[in-house]
Design goal:
Keywords: Membrane, Transmembrane, Transmembrane helix. It is built from 8 helices and 2 strands. It is mostly helical. The chain has one domain: Rhopdopsin 7-helix transmembrane proteins, CATH 1.20.1070. The chain has a two-stranded antiparallel sheet. Strand 1 and strand 2 form a beta hairpin. The two termini are about 20 Å apart.
C-alpha cells in the first residue's frame, strides 16, 4: 500500500508544482503521470479489500489465516496486486484513453475524444464502489464476531495488537468510502469550480499519507 501512496503523492506534488508555475505539460508527461496515479489508486482500492479480507480471516477464521496468508499465499496476493496494477495502468497507457491535468481549474479530466475514456471512467466508478462494498461486508462480519466474543477479543497481547491492525484497516476503508463518494457526488455539497477541486485534491493527498499517520498514532 505504501508504494501506491507514494506514487500518488509524487504525481500530486508535480501537479501542484505545475499549478504554481502555470506549466502546461505535453501529452507524454500527462500520459505517464496519468498512468502512475490511475493505476496506483485502482490498485490501492484492491489492496484495501485485501486488508479487509485479512482482518476478516484473522478474526473470523483464525485457523485459516496461516494458510491463506502463508508465505506462498502472500506471493499469490502480491502477484494479484501486480496484475491489477498492470491491468489499469496498461489501459491508461494505451492510445485509447487519455486524461490530463488542467492547471487553470486544478483538475484531472478525461479527454472523451479517445475511444475508451468514457468507458474507463464508468468502469472504475463501479469498481471503486464495489471494492468499498466488499470491504464493508468483511468488516461487518468482523464487528459481529467481536461483539459475540468480546470477552475473548481482549484477553491477550496478540489480540490487542490485532485490534490495532483492525482499526488501521477499518479507518482506511472509511476514508476510502468517503473519498470515493465525494469523488463522484461532491456536487451535492460543493458547487463545481476551483474550491471543489481543491477539496478533492486535498483528499487525494490525505489519502497518500493516511496509512503512515495511522501507524504513528496507533504505535505511540
Amino acid at each position: 500500500m505504501g508504494v501506491f501512496d507514494v506514487s500518488q503523492l509524487c504525481v500530486h506534488f508535480l501537479t501542484g508544482l505545475f499549478t504554481v508555475i502555470q506549466y502546461e505539460a505535453d501529452y507524454v508527461v500527462y500520459k505517464v503521470m496519468g498512468t502512475i496515479i490511475s493505476g496506483g489508486y485502482e490498485t490501492w482500492v484492491f489492496v484495501t479489500v485485501i486488508l479487509a479480507f485479512n482482518r476478516f480471516v484473522l478474526f473470523c477464521f483464525p485457523a485459516r489465516e496461516k494458510q491463506i496468508f502463508s508465505s506462498t499465499g502472500n506471493k499469490i496476493w502480491l502477484l494479484a496486486t501486480i496484475a491489477v496494477y498492470a491491468l489499469f495502468a496498461g489501459i491508461q497507457a494505451s492510445s485509447k484513453v487519455y486524461s490530463k491535468y488542467l492547471i487553470d481549474i486544478y483538475q484531472w479530466k478525461y479527454d472523451y475524444s479517445y475511444a475508451w475514456s468514457r468507458i474507463r471512467k464508468d468502469v472504475v466508478i463501479y469498481y471503486q464502489l464495489g471494492g468499498v462494498f466488499v470491504a464493508w461486508l468483511f468488516y461487518i462480519a468482523v464487528v459481529i464476531k467481536l461483539f459475540r466474543y468480546r470477552n475473548e477479543a481482549g484477553s491477550s497481547t496478540r489480540s490487542k495488537a490485532n485490534q490495532k491492525l483492525l482499526i488501521h484497516a477499518f479507518v482506511i476503508t472509511v476514508y476510502c468510502t468517503i473519498q470515493n463518494f465525494l469523488w463522484h457526488k461532491i456536487d451535492v455539497f460543493i458547487p463545481e469550480g476551483k474550491v471543489q477541486n481543491v477539496v478533492l485534491n486535498m483528499m487525494w493527498v490525505g489519502n497518500g499519507g493516511l496509512s503512515t499517520l495511522l501507524c504513528l498514532i496507533l504505535n505511540q
